[in-house]
Design brief:
Elements (H helix, E strand, L loop, with lengths): L4 H4 L4 H7 L4 E6 L2 E13 L28 E6 L3 E8 L6 E12 L1 H8 L12 H7 L16 E4 L10 E4 L16 E4 L12
Antiparallel strand pairs: 1-2, 1-6, 2-5, 2-8, 3-4, 4-5, 7-8
Length: about 200
Protein backbone atom coordinates (compact mmCIF):
# COMPACT_ATOMS: atom_id res chain seq x y z
CA UNK A 1 0.00 0.00 0.00
CA UNK A 2 2.80 2.46 0.86
CA UNK A 3 4.46 4.04 -2.15
CA UNK A 4 7.88 2.50 -2.71
CA UNK A 5 11.08 4.54 -2.32
CA UNK A 6 11.57 4.09 -6.09
CA UNK A 7 8.28 5.87 -6.80
CA UNK A 8 9.71 9.12 -5.49
CA UNK A 9 12.90 8.89 -7.55
CA UNK A 10 11.00 9.68 -10.75
CA UNK A 11 12.88 12.57 -12.40
CA UNK A 12 9.70 13.92 -14.05
CA UNK A 13 8.29 15.96 -11.18
CA UNK A 14 5.43 17.34 -13.26
CA UNK A 15 3.96 13.93 -14.09
CA UNK A 16 4.55 12.80 -10.51
CA UNK A 17 2.68 15.83 -9.14
CA UNK A 18 -0.30 14.83 -11.26
CA UNK A 19 0.03 11.16 -10.31
CA UNK A 20 -0.07 12.00 -6.60
CA UNK A 21 -3.71 13.07 -6.96
CA UNK A 22 -5.78 10.33 -5.34
CA UNK A 23 -2.92 9.03 -3.21
CA UNK A 24 -3.54 9.05 0.55
CA UNK A 25 -1.26 11.02 2.88
CA UNK A 26 -0.98 9.71 6.46
CA UNK A 27 0.54 11.02 9.67
CA UNK A 28 0.96 9.26 12.99
CA UNK A 29 1.63 11.56 15.95
CA UNK A 30 1.77 9.63 19.19
CA UNK A 31 -1.19 7.30 18.87
CA UNK A 32 -3.17 9.66 16.61
CA UNK A 33 -3.41 8.61 12.97
CA UNK A 34 -4.93 11.01 10.47
CA UNK A 35 -5.10 10.82 6.68
CA UNK A 36 -6.45 12.61 3.66
CA UNK A 37 -6.74 12.03 -0.07
CA UNK A 38 -4.42 14.34 -2.01
CA UNK A 39 -6.60 16.51 -4.27
CA UNK A 40 -4.27 19.40 -5.16
CA UNK A 41 -0.54 19.60 -5.90
CA UNK A 42 2.09 21.84 -7.45
CA UNK A 43 5.34 20.76 -9.12
CA UNK A 44 8.64 22.57 -8.54
CA UNK A 45 11.32 21.74 -11.07
CA UNK A 46 14.56 22.11 -9.14
CA UNK A 47 17.41 24.36 -10.17
CA UNK A 48 15.81 25.42 -13.49
CA UNK A 49 12.51 26.61 -11.99
CA UNK A 50 12.42 30.28 -10.99
CA UNK A 51 9.65 29.48 -8.49
CA UNK A 52 11.71 26.81 -6.72
CA UNK A 53 13.63 27.42 -3.51
CA UNK A 54 16.52 25.63 -5.23
CA UNK A 55 16.52 27.81 -8.37
CA UNK A 56 19.99 28.37 -9.75
CA UNK A 57 21.43 25.72 -7.44
CA UNK A 58 20.71 27.71 -4.27
CA UNK A 59 21.71 25.64 -1.25
CA UNK A 60 20.92 26.90 2.22
CA UNK A 61 20.19 25.29 5.56
CA UNK A 62 16.51 25.39 4.59
CA UNK A 63 16.80 24.00 1.06
CA UNK A 64 19.36 21.28 1.82
CA UNK A 65 16.54 18.77 2.39
CA UNK A 66 15.52 19.17 -1.26
CA UNK A 67 18.92 17.95 -2.43
CA UNK A 68 18.54 14.56 -0.82
CA UNK A 69 17.21 11.46 -2.55
CA UNK A 70 13.50 11.59 -3.33
CA UNK A 71 11.14 10.19 -0.72
CA UNK A 72 11.51 12.59 2.19
CA UNK A 73 9.38 15.44 3.52
CA UNK A 74 10.40 19.05 2.95
CA UNK A 75 8.55 21.26 5.43
CA UNK A 76 9.10 24.99 5.76
CA UNK A 77 7.42 27.94 7.41
CA UNK A 78 5.68 30.41 5.08
CA UNK A 79 5.02 34.02 6.16
CA UNK A 80 6.16 33.02 9.63
CA UNK A 81 2.89 31.24 10.33
CA UNK A 82 1.99 28.39 7.93
CA UNK A 83 3.91 25.13 7.65
CA UNK A 84 3.92 23.83 4.08
CA UNK A 85 4.53 20.17 3.26
CA UNK A 86 6.37 19.08 0.12
CA UNK A 87 7.33 15.68 -1.22
CA UNK A 88 10.99 15.66 -2.30
CA UNK A 89 11.33 13.76 -5.58
CA UNK A 90 13.97 12.69 -8.10
CA UNK A 91 17.55 11.57 -7.38
CA UNK A 92 20.18 12.97 -5.03
CA UNK A 93 21.30 16.52 -5.88
CA UNK A 94 18.33 17.04 -8.24
CA UNK A 95 16.10 19.12 -5.93
CA UNK A 96 12.60 18.58 -7.28
CA UNK A 97 9.59 18.81 -4.99
CA UNK A 98 5.79 18.57 -5.03
CA UNK A 99 3.84 20.92 -2.77
CA UNK A 100 0.71 19.31 -1.33
CA UNK A 101 -1.92 22.07 -1.59
CA UNK A 102 -5.11 20.26 -0.59
CA UNK A 103 -6.35 17.03 0.99
CA UNK A 104 -9.80 15.56 1.41
CA UNK A 105 -10.05 14.38 5.06
CA UNK A 106 -10.45 10.62 5.27
CA UNK A 107 -9.24 9.26 8.62
CA UNK A 108 -9.14 10.69 12.13
CA UNK A 109 -11.82 13.22 11.27
CA UNK A 110 -12.46 14.34 14.85
CA UNK A 111 -8.74 14.99 15.37
CA UNK A 112 -8.60 17.00 12.13
CA UNK A 113 -11.59 19.05 13.28
CA UNK A 114 -9.87 19.78 16.60
CA UNK A 115 -6.62 20.83 14.92
CA UNK A 116 -8.44 23.19 12.57
CA UNK A 117 -11.22 24.21 14.97
CA UNK A 118 -13.87 23.77 12.30
CA UNK A 119 -16.22 21.20 10.81
CA UNK A 120 -15.00 18.66 8.29
CA UNK A 121 -17.94 19.77 6.14
CA UNK A 122 -16.15 23.05 5.42
CA UNK A 123 -13.76 22.88 2.49
CA UNK A 124 -11.47 25.37 4.23
CA UNK A 125 -10.55 22.73 6.81
CA UNK A 126 -7.87 21.35 4.49
CA UNK A 127 -7.89 23.46 1.30
CA UNK A 128 -4.63 25.28 0.74
CA UNK A 129 -1.16 24.05 1.72
CA UNK A 130 -1.10 25.61 5.20
CA UNK A 131 -4.51 24.21 6.08
CA UNK A 132 -3.70 20.76 4.66
CA UNK A 133 -0.52 20.52 6.74
CA UNK A 134 -2.21 21.74 9.92
CA UNK A 135 -5.11 19.29 9.44
CA UNK A 136 -2.61 16.43 9.49
CA UNK A 137 -0.50 17.90 12.29
CA UNK A 138 2.52 18.51 10.05
CA UNK A 139 5.01 21.04 11.37
CA UNK A 140 8.74 21.73 11.09
CA UNK A 141 9.56 18.57 13.08
CA UNK A 142 8.52 16.55 10.01
CA UNK A 143 11.19 18.14 7.82
CA UNK A 144 13.53 15.52 6.28
CA UNK A 145 11.48 12.61 7.63
CA UNK A 146 11.43 9.55 5.40
CA UNK A 147 8.10 8.97 3.66
CA UNK A 148 8.49 5.22 4.04
CA UNK A 149 8.60 5.33 7.84
CA UNK A 150 5.90 5.21 10.51
CA UNK A 151 5.33 8.93 11.17
CA UNK A 152 4.43 10.17 7.71
CA UNK A 153 3.77 8.17 4.56
CA UNK A 154 1.71 8.02 1.36
CA UNK A 155 -0.34 5.07 0.18
CA UNK A 156 -1.84 4.05 -3.15
CA UNK A 157 -5.34 2.81 -2.37
CA UNK A 158 -6.46 2.61 -5.99
CA UNK A 159 -8.23 5.98 -6.10
CA UNK A 160 -8.03 7.27 -9.66
CA UNK A 161 -9.42 10.35 -11.40
CA UNK A 162 -10.29 10.46 -15.08
CA UNK A 163 -8.18 12.78 -17.22
CA UNK A 164 -11.14 15.10 -17.79
CA UNK A 165 -11.61 15.44 -14.02
CA UNK A 166 -8.09 16.85 -13.46
CA UNK A 167 -7.28 20.52 -14.04
CA UNK A 168 -3.79 21.78 -14.91
CA UNK A 169 -3.37 25.51 -14.20
CA UNK A 170 -0.59 27.98 -13.32
CA UNK A 171 0.76 27.77 -9.77
CA UNK A 172 -0.49 30.13 -7.07
CA UNK A 173 1.26 33.16 -5.58
CA UNK A 174 4.53 33.01 -7.50
CA UNK A 175 4.43 36.17 -9.62
CA UNK A 176 8.14 36.65 -8.79
CA UNK A 177 8.91 33.63 -11.01
CA UNK A 178 8.15 35.73 -14.11
CA UNK A 179 7.59 33.52 -17.17
CA UNK A 180 7.74 30.39 -15.02
CA UNK A 181 4.67 31.63 -13.11
CA UNK A 182 2.59 30.77 -16.17
CA UNK A 183 3.60 27.10 -16.38
CA UNK A 184 0.55 24.81 -15.85
CA UNK A 185 2.16 22.86 -13.02
CA UNK A 186 -0.67 23.02 -10.50
CA UNK A 187 -3.00 20.03 -10.61
CA UNK A 188 -6.31 19.60 -8.85
CA UNK A 189 -9.46 17.51 -8.87
CA UNK A 190 -12.23 19.52 -10.50
CA UNK A 191 -15.25 20.17 -8.31
CA UNK A 192 -13.58 18.96 -5.09
CA UNK A 193 -14.40 21.36 -2.24
CA UNK A 194 -11.05 20.72 -0.55
CA UNK A 195 -9.20 22.44 -3.40
CA UNK A 196 -7.92 25.97 -2.69
CA UNK A 197 -8.95 28.99 -4.69
CA UNK A 198 -8.85 29.67 -7.56
CA UNK A 199 -10.57 26.33 -8.11
CA UNK A 200 -12.01 27.09 -11.53
CA UNK A 201 -10.27 26.20 -14.77
Amino acid sequence: MKLSPEYYQNEDVVSLAKDLLGKVLYTKIGEEITAGIIVETEAYFGVKDKASHAYGGRRTQRTETMYGEGGVAYVYLCYGMHHLFNVVTSVKDDPHAVLIRGIEPMLGLEIIEQRRNMSRLKGAISAGPGSAAKALGIDKTFNAKNLSDEEIWIEDQGIRYAEEDIAATPRVGIAYAKEHALLPWRFFVKGNKYVSKPNKV
